[in-house]
């Protein structure tokens, strides 16, 4: 039997529990030897992996009931990745050269159970599209909010990985008006010019402490501008932020409005705490009299969404009816800084780290 050459993989590990928002100093780049796959495993050479704000919630173990494990010092970070199969045991349904997705990103090589790998649909124009967060947006808008023809839709955090696709999806599903929120005028301009938002409100920082004077002032300011942008109210909310923006959205809800909550950046990316809670003050009386439904969206509750989304996304990309805004960062050594920059609101759309060969 031909011996398997020794490979060294670099990977990003949590070095210490962050004191507040994570910084590059909280992570370490480790070099580890990679062996041959065991029965039922394949060896994958990662090419790209996703940088996502939800990692902050997983750092330190404060979160409860998360669908994925929390991270502690010494653990390697993880998340969606695209790579090529390098080695597969005899009888495996996967072959060397297959392009697959899995959840062991933040490393150059990954030993992945076969059952946790999926071939990338060749209908997608670019495998990186598989790292987009559109499945959450699509599932929330079709299963929870159920967008209808003529709906007025509000998307909070519209310049992020979910929001940059959510507004486009809402329009394709029949929304007559799509309003977004983001933190900077520059991003607001891009959302209107490039992604078809009708109006984008610059909502300021989501990091105000809940219940503080700054939080109440942020609510009053945002509520007034939302009332101007949607004088007749909103039918659908796809919320990735929470906080004062969710408070104001309740006030703007039309009768029978449907709210889908897919993120909680106001708490996840707050400087205070561990990112494991996102309290918001909302008018429950208005929820009742307006018949507003509010529901969180989890992809695991809707197992058929992923395949449906991939098929529709591929068609929309090929026809040019949807765009995938990407920020590409080259090199695993830049990944911790990319996470910090994403948390700081410096990037637009889906953020991926690309992994070229290294010597």
Query: How confident overall, as mean pLDDT?
Result: 93
Structural class: alpha/beta
Q: Main beta sheet: strand number and arrangement?
A: 7 strands, mixed
Name the overall outline: globular
- Stated plainly, the CATH topology of the largest domain is called Rossmann fold
Helix content: 25-40%
DSSP strand tally:
15
Annotation field: number of helices: 10
Residue runs with pLDDT of under 50 for 5 or more positions: 206-212
Computed Rg: 21 Å
Oligomer: single chain
Number of domains: 2
The fraction of residues assigned to DSSP E strands is: 15-25%
Tags for this model:
Quinone Oxidoreductase, Chain A, domain 1; 6-stranded parallel beta sheet; 2 domains; NAD(P)-bd_dom_sf; Zn-ADH-like_protein; Rossmann fold; 27% helix; alpha/beta; 7-stranded mixed beta sheet; 359 residues; 25% strand; NADP-dependent oxidoreductase; ER
Describe what you observe in this structure.
The protein is an alpha/beta fold and 359 residues long. It folds into two domains: 156 residues, Alpha-Beta Complex (Quinone Oxidoreductase, Chain A, domain 1); 168 residues, 3-Layer(aba) Sandwich (Rossmann fold), CATH 3.40.50. The protein is 27% helix and 25% strand. It is built from ten helices and 15 strands. Strands 3, 4, 5, 6, 7, 14 and 15 form a seven-stranded mixed β-sheet that branches. About 2% of the residues have low confidence.
Task: Draw up the topology in text.
Layout lengths: L6 E8 L12 E8 L6 E11 L3 H4 L22 E7 L11 E4 L6 E5 L4 E2 L14 H11 L7 E4 L7 H10 L4 E6 L2 H11 L3 E4 L10 H17 L4 E6 L3 H9 L1 E9 L3 H4 L15 H6 L3 E4 L8 H15 L6 E5 L4 H9 L6 E5 L5
Parallel strand pairs: 8-9, 8-11, 9-10, 11-12, 12-13, 14-15
Antiparallel strand pairs: 1-2, 3-4, 3-6, 3-15, 4-5, 5-7
InterPro entries: ADH-like_C, ADH_N_2, ER, GroES-like_sf, NAD(P)-bd_dom_sf, Quin_OxRdtase/zeta-crystal_CS, Zn-ADH-like_protein
Organism: Streptomyces achromogenes
Protein name: NADP-dependent oxidoreductase
């Amino acid at each position: 039997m031909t011996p398997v050459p020794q490979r060294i993989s670099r990977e990003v590990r949590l070095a210490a529990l962050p004191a507040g928002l994570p910084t590059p100093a909280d992570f370490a780049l480790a070099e580890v030897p990679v062996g041959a796959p065991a029965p039922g495993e394949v060896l994958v050479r990662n090419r790209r992996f996703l940088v996502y704000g939800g990692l902050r919630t997983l750092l330190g173990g404060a979160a409860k009931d998360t669908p994925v494990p929390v991270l502690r010092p010494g653990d390697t970070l993880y998340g969606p990745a695209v790579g090529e199969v390098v080695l597969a045991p005899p009888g495996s349904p996967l072959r060397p050269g297959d392009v697959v997705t899995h959840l062991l990103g933040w490393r150059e090589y990954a030993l992945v159970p076969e059952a946790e790998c999926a071939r990338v649909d060749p209908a997608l124009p670019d495998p990186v599209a598989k790292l987009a967060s559109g499945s959450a947006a699509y599932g929330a808008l079709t299963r929870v909010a159920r967008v209808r023809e003529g709906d007025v839709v509000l998307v909070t955090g519209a310049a992020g990985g979910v929001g940059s696709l959510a507004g486009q999806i809402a329009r394709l599903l029949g929304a007559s008006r799509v309003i977004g929120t983001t933190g900077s005028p520059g991003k607001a301009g891009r959302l209107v010019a490039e992604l078809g938002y009708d109006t984008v409100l610059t909502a300021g920082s989501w990091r105000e402490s809940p219940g503080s004077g700054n939080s109440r002032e942020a609510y009053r300011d945002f509520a007034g501008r939302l009332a101007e942008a949607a004088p007749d109210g909103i039918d659908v909310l796809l919320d990735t932020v929470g906080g004062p923006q969710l408070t104001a959205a309740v006030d703007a809800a039309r009768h029978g409005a449907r709210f889908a909550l897919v993120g909680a950046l106001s708490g996840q990316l707050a400087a205070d705490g561990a990112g494991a809670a996102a309290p918001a003050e909302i008018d429950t009386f208005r929820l009742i009299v307006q018949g507003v439904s509010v529901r969180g969206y989890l992809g695991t509750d809707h197992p058929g969404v992923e395949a449906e989304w991939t098929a529709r996304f591929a068609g929309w990309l090929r026809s040019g009816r949807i765009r995938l805004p990407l920020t590409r960062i080259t090199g695993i050594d830049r990944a911790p800084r990319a996470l910090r920059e994403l948390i700081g609101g410096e990037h637009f759309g889906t953020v991926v780290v690309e992994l070229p060969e290294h010597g």
